[in-house]
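Same chain as my last thread, 297 residues:
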Amino acid sequence: MEGEVLIDIKASVLENFDKGAASGKHYSSKTLYPAFPAVVGTDGVGLTAEGKLVAFRKIRPPFGAFAEKVAAGFIIPVPDEIDAVRASAIPSAALTSLLPLKYSAKLEPGETVLVNGATGVSGRIAVQMAKMLGAGKVIATGRNPHSLSLLPRLGADVVIDLNQGDADLSMALCEAGGEKGIDVVVDFIWGHPAEVLIGTFIPEQVGFATRRIRYLQIGEKAGSPISLPASALRTSGLELMGIGKLSFAQVQEELAQIWRWIADGKLYMEIVEVPLANIAEAWQRNDLEGKRLVIVP
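reply #2:
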């Protein structure tokens, strides 16, 4: 169709979003897949007819990114020094934390950031991103022991295991925040861990809020609904927010910065490459905590 570019696909990420959308569990499912059969996959990186490496989006249903070729309605040039696999795997995860930290929470240098669910792919990147944006302290929580052990190398100053009782977890969170407390939360898991965390913000004394806690809700791996007591909002200083309203120009500007970080080797991500011929096996894998799965030719 007019406006579309034929792309020879070199890499496309397979993540939980793709599985959720294909199963009908994500709110975008009907838009992405109005009918089946369909080729799954929403974006990726590949070569144009001229041999230029580009990232692509706006794929016309029922044609998706887990294929050999695709007609894309939107492309972004990839810098020459960045390979297709990294160009496919890292930018979306980096934007997921960079944009809300910078534009919604407006993180200030020296502030304390807590990444709730830091053992996943995006959580690991968020730890790195908070440090690069000037956070004075980064607190990271998670359940996977191996991934937790890696977080100090990525910039986490304090690591908290969520595999403990609520009382012990609350105490650990309060101690990690210290006298100053937590300024920004980046939450990738929500659910009960969020309830425990928010409970630590409820003041014990009557009075007006003495600080701001900007709480960025991004993921819901531990569950979508939570119980939120009124006392958690009244005088705690807690402000709940999402990624926020952003312009295309802002996204383009931050993507350019992410390209520079990738080229300079400043963003670490564990990537597992799987051939397109093994897509069925890759779809069933659940052993990739903290690792990004990329489908390649």
